[in-house]
Amino acid sequence: MNLLSGFIGLVPVGMMQGLTYALIAIAIMIPFRILNFSDMTGEGAFPFGACVCAKLLMVGLNPVAALLGGALAGFVAGLVTGYIHEKAKINTLLCGILVLSMLYSVNIRVMGQPNSALFAFPSIFSWLPDDGGGYLPRIVMLAVIDIAIGAGVLWFLGTQHGLAMRAIGSSPSMAKAQGINVKVYTLVGLGLANLFAALGGAMLAQNQGFADVNMGFGVLVNGLAALLLGEAVIGNRSMTRQVIAPVLGSIIYFQLISAVLAIGFQPSDLKLVTALFVLLTLLSMAARKKRPASGARKKAGMVVS
Q: pLDDT (tens digit, 9 = 90+) per residue, 190-233?
């Protein structure tokens, strides 16, 4: 009974975290699934957006302008990753690692210190009606933002530019033969992905009331776990499912984390639990792919005999 009550008490917090971190899951989905580009910049763009947002709040900008500023900073980070890859022709993962490493120092320069408290500054959540300390208004606001962003991404991927971006992920050489500027669309795709990652970091900073240069540690694994979980639940065979999967997966993933905490695990165990969860999900997905192949071989053997 204590386990169940503990889990129920963590459900609202898990919902808020899931809806916030859904943006980093979307940021992972775009380069990995749409562009076929292994990008790790999101782990640096997430705190970058938070730190820029915090600085803009401290200099007097309103919360919406601070969110947009943080998101734009993430867009620039994505452009830098793409530019390094195009100019230096080095591995995509290494490009992301280089940029996220540089962003750690940039974040400290932006805020002037490793962390900043934002309790004295307004946020988008301070505009919500007071429900006695409950989480429902914040959950509703985050859900509306996620739905709007998901709808926008789905609409964009159905446009001519979105189709060109998807063509690059399927076959860059074929896309180039069709007259698509692969470099430009890759840069824009990485910029958009990291824009969402930075926006998630900025929203988290306003929600929790502080920004820290280390708040991006491990978010890439969390986002990947959410993406894989969402795809395991609803699949990714249509563009609509590809967009819904990271959001749904993020919500389910953080509810699972709440259950793990309710069981008695310590917060310090969550990195291990997440890594094991990602590993088990990848193994199960690999096993699923092998089953149809083995079935096809058996049928072929029966036909030959």
A: 999 999 999 999 999 999 999 999 998 889 888 988 998 898 88
Rg of the chain's alpha carbons, rounded to an integer? Answer: 21
Question: How far is residue 251 CA from its own chain's centroid?
Answer: 12
β-partners of residue 211 are: 116
pLDDT in tens, 74-131: 999 999 999 999 888 888 889 999 999 999 999 999 999 999 999 999 999 988 887 6
Tokens describing residue 73: 């900073």
Q: Is 76 exposed, middle or buried (0-12, 13-18, 19+ CB in 10 A)?
A: middle
Residue carrying structure tokens 């505009």: 127
Residue 304 confidence class, pLDDT cut points 50, 70, 90: very low
Q: Would you tell me the crossing angle of helices 182-208 and 42-58 to the nearest 10 degrees? A: 50
